[in-house]
Amino acid sequence: MNHKLTLKEKVGYGMGDAAANLVWRGALAYLAVFYTDTFGITAAAAALLFLVVRLSDGVTDIIMGMIADRTQTKMGKFRPWILGSTPFLGLFMVLCFTTPELSYSGKLIYAYLTYIGLTLAYTVNNVPYSALMGVMTSDDRERTSLSGFRFAGAFLGGLLVMGCLPMLVELLGEGNNATGYQYTMWLFATLLVVLMCVTVFTTKERVTLQQASEPQNANPLSSVVGSGDQPSHAARSLASELMDLAKQLPLILIPLSTITAFFYYRNLITGVLFIVVIALTAIAVKQLTRRPESKNTRSQQDIIDLLSNKPWLILLGMGFLTMMFNGIKYGVIAYYFKYYMGNELLTGYFFIALLVVSIFGALATSKLATMFGRKKLFIIALLTSSLLTSAIYFVPQKSVSAIFILGCCAEFFAAILPTLFFSMLGDSADYSEYRTGRRATGLVYSAGSFVQKTGGGFAGALVLLVLGSYGYNGLDINTINQTLPGMKSLMSWIPALFGFAGAALICLYPLNDEKQKEVTQALLARRSEQPPISA
């Protein structure tokens, strides 16, 4: 279980996120500007699209995590899903950037259908991919190192799509952006399939012990075995468990829906509704977590374990805040250089510079975490990156060098954030097993993926809402000058606010390196005494 990973396996795993980020970074950085400036959708309509689709996408993340946890094949739990979903992911990547001849209403319908298809395929692919990290090794230091390779690969994939996309669109489209986007996406989709296959066939799942099985009276010093007098739920079908999950989903969907409504409409009615719903949800969660384990089904206990896992809850908030911090910056860059700086080609060069720096930041995370500890490093990285990002506000409009220097310095520290986040999600899965005797790796990582997607959706929507509030219309050049102050703010102090909030939140995180070492050693001792048990 405490397996040291080879360089080949780390690089192979990293190639999977290089593939995923041909989609993720491309959609995050260019889909908004594609919708408004090429496809012809208004900024307000595109903002609502991002919010609605990401909201539904979060639910499918959790469902996919449960399905993956219960999968049993010779290849393991997670790799079969990665392999099977890859062709669909590439296809919807192309369809999202295709511009059919339709009416405005038809374009909206097409955008919703293709974007939903893309996010579903991404969920089926990326939730198992993320969870794969948690079962390749139980060594938390190896997971941090593996996470560094993962995000080095992610930034390499982002480098290809964000750095080369403007030039490829111009080259392949020969002046026709719609054609250029489509041909470019076919090229990236082909590369995606190749890289995902590398990941599947160079990695191995090793941690196959008991997951979130039937409820049991476990404690941190007990061995991982059932109490013997609890009702077994092993025979329950997946369909029955998903029905049980559906009963718990309102605890997630209703609060998110009210947050979305308040975020989009920003009025007194939605604000009051948001406060009331959050208060009622807190009461419902408190009652749920107090129920005796013997009365819970397996899926219900999965959710209860998550809601009572303090490290995971704090990481959930961190995932959202760091995604808002990074997502807002990446979402506005294309607009910022095209209009505020007056040179669209600088967008690609800036992305290349950021992503090259990001690779070094991701690879340096493991050594920096050893020096400072992961919690302290998280705080340092957030504060430093936020301060440097805020400084962009004071840079004169045509100072390209200053923007590149500040942006790259901030990005080095920003690249540390997702690297730490996903390695620490594995720690929260360990903590749940340590505390309860149950483990649901797929669900832990799916919920982390869910909050990152939600944060990305809100970040993209916030960019469009701020631009829309200034009267931005991508098809009317006369509206551009009035939106320049909004672009300047979105590039600087607006994302920095989320970074400072994240630095305050991570101070509450209870698992320092000493505590995590204690958890890891206790789990290794248990596993050495018990044979592996598959859920």
TrEMBL record:
Pfam family, one: MFS_2
Keyword Transmembrane: yes
Localization, UniProt: Cell membrane
Gene3D superfamilies: MFS general substrate transporter like domains (1.20.1250.20)
UniProt main location, coarse: membrane
GO molecular function terms attached to this record: symporter activity
Keywords per UniProt: Cell membrane, Membrane, Transmembrane, Transmembrane helix, Transport
GO annotation (BP), single: carbohydrate transport
Family, per entry: Belongs to the sodium:galactoside symporter (TC 2.A.2) family.
CDD domains hit by this protein: MFS_MelB_like (cd17332)
Membrane topology: Multi-pass membrane protein
UniProt entry tagged with the keyword Transport: yes
Record-annotated membrane-spanning stretches: 39-57, 78-97, 109-127, 148-169, 181-201, 271-289, 310-328, 348-365, 377-395, 401-422, 443-470, 490-511
GO cellular component, one term: plasma membrane
UniProt-recorded name of the protein: MFS transporter
